[in-house]
């Protein structure tokens, strides 16, 4: 065999041999009952004991499906027909719901969504954390490391923690929204080209194919209007869209932010290059057509990546920031600032955080993942002193700016990893009555959990965006002398599978 043939053969993907001995094979059809729903919002059914995940199917339904893919333990199937529909099934109001990947649960009644999200939290606490939840059966047995979705297994507890077993964690009903639509204050819209010119919308489910859209039912109406106007102006001016495959074209994303309380709006044009053709004309038309826009920025991203923002941001017109409030706290929001996208539910989430911190005005509080200071400043209204730490320098700059904006001088912010900075604070004589953590999806760094156990605060408040890593970390804290008293799920993202939670822990050992 010559070298060319060897290279060609090496580049071919070998087709895996089909798995034998399964009750179903690829392309088979079957009628199954849906007995649950996984964390991705897919219905879970069984064909002769073999688990199938079915997108779009709801618990309690009988469905006819076509098997798409099989693995040894489970497979995936396509919903072909509803034989018996769930009473929780509704018609999704979004006309492109079946194509867009932004929402996963619009076909499910909102009350049922809230109940499922609570159950998702409960299941993770009991299965992964081996924690006792009030009203749930006691779970015993070794903790499965793979249940933590690839996260480290933490403590290998074989029995329920003493605190949880005695009392049981009170998991409240999910705090939902009275009006669970039009809640997002930020739109990040990828741009593309069709025969009709510039288009922008959202990626089709499971792909990078752009679905053009004029309205998104979970976006604030103002964001829809701004995106539509910016696209129309761009078409008229002949602005090209970035092409992922060739790396050519100019406009990659249009990012729009709206401040719910003040009404101020910001537009960020993310471009594949420094120069924008007809930039002055574009800015003038936006000003004329959209009087709520007070800031127009350009972010330059020339890398071949699916990361939205590049390193360079400049103001094309107007202010560098817009201002908004969460409760009584004012925040400056820049083009790249992280700011919670659902301000109404953020107030609920932070209100519960303050409640669980049980502050009297004298306590020292450490906020271990402080970001731009949102939780820190909420806590500072009720605490003696708040110390915030965050590894992103730009976020700390924003946090300090926001503290100054609100005249809060009882807050100190420092750049660094929590597991490094907090022990250094302890060496300086800084003790914590309360530690608040709001980590990313991967949960707390194991060293941070060790640091918390060494600091021995009276209370820990854990704000989580991932029930599985929350459960894993609560297990570690319980084994280290804490008891989880309550958990409140909060629906920050209605009609999606995401759920935030706030857990309240007290020291017992």
Automatic annotation (TrEMBL):
* Name listed for the protein in its UniProt record: 23S rRNA (Uracil(1939)-C(5))-methyltransferase RlmD
Residues forming the catalytic site: 465 (nucleophile), 465
* The enzyme's E.C. designation: 2.1.1.190
**What are the top taxonomic ranks of the organism?**
Bacteria, Bacillati, Bacillota, Bacilli, Bacillales
Keywords of the record, alphabetical order, are:
4Fe-4S, Iron, Iron-sulfur, Metal-binding, Methyltransferase, S-adenosyl-L-methionine, Transferase
- Biological process GO annotation list? rRNA base methylation
Q: Name one GO molecular function term.
A: rRNA (uridine-C5-)-methyltransferase activity
Look up keyword Plastid and say if it applies. Answer: no
- Where is S-adenosyl-L-methionine annotated to bind? 340, 369, 390, 438
Presence of the UniProt keyword Transit peptide in the record: no
Source organism of the structure: Paenibacillus dendrobii
By sequence similarity, the record places it as follows: Belongs to the class I-like SAM-binding methyltransferase superfamily. RNA M5U methyltransferase family.
**For the TRAM domain, which residue ranges apply?**
23-81
Basic residues bias: start-end ranges: 1-11
- Entry's Pfam families? TRAM, tRNA_U5-meth_tr
Extract the ranges annotated as region (Disordered).
1-21
